Amino acid sequence: MTRAKVRIDQASLTFAELADIEEELGTSLSALFEKSQARGMAALVWITVRRTDPAFSFDDALQYGPGDLDNVDADPEALAANNGGALHTSPASGDSTPVT
């Protein structure tokens, strides 16, 4: 079966959509991806396609595979704290001095 690629843009997901995934699957997103990357990716397919096809179900999404996805590359600087890159830290606590 040939189908159009699903463009996954994680940065475009709303908190409501992410909450819908957690409610549908009965687990937090972090636990979902820790337990099953495949089900986590299917959840992203489901929530993305559902935007234009409300009848699209999670079971429908499970029929997709990696070749059916077109992932949007995230900003590498925004992800640096999550991928082992340099952390963005705040200055040490204490009195702050305004820049003049």
Q: Give the helix tally.
A: 5
Largest sheet: 2 strands, parallel
| Rg from Cα | 18 Å
What letter string, H or E per element, gives the SSE order? EHHHHEH
Structural class: mainly alpha
How many runs of DSSP E, i.e. beta strands?
2
Unreliable stretches: 78-91
Inertia-based shape? globular
Roughly how much helix do the residues carry, as a percent range?
25-40%
In percent, how much strand structure appears in the residues? 5-15%
Query: How confident is the prediction overall: mean pLDDT?
Result: 80
Biggest sheet strand line-up: 1-2
Alpha-carbon distance between the termini? Answer: 64 Å
Short overview:
This protein has 100 residues and is mainly alpha-helical. Helix content is 39%, strand content 6%.
Describe it for me?
The chain has a two-stranded parallel ribbon. It is mainly alpha-helical. The chain has helices at residues 15-25, 29-35, 37-49, 58-61, 76-79, and strands spanning 6-8, 69-71. The model is unreliable at 78-91 (pLDDT under 50). It has a domain at 6-71. 39% of the residues lie in helices and 6% in strands.
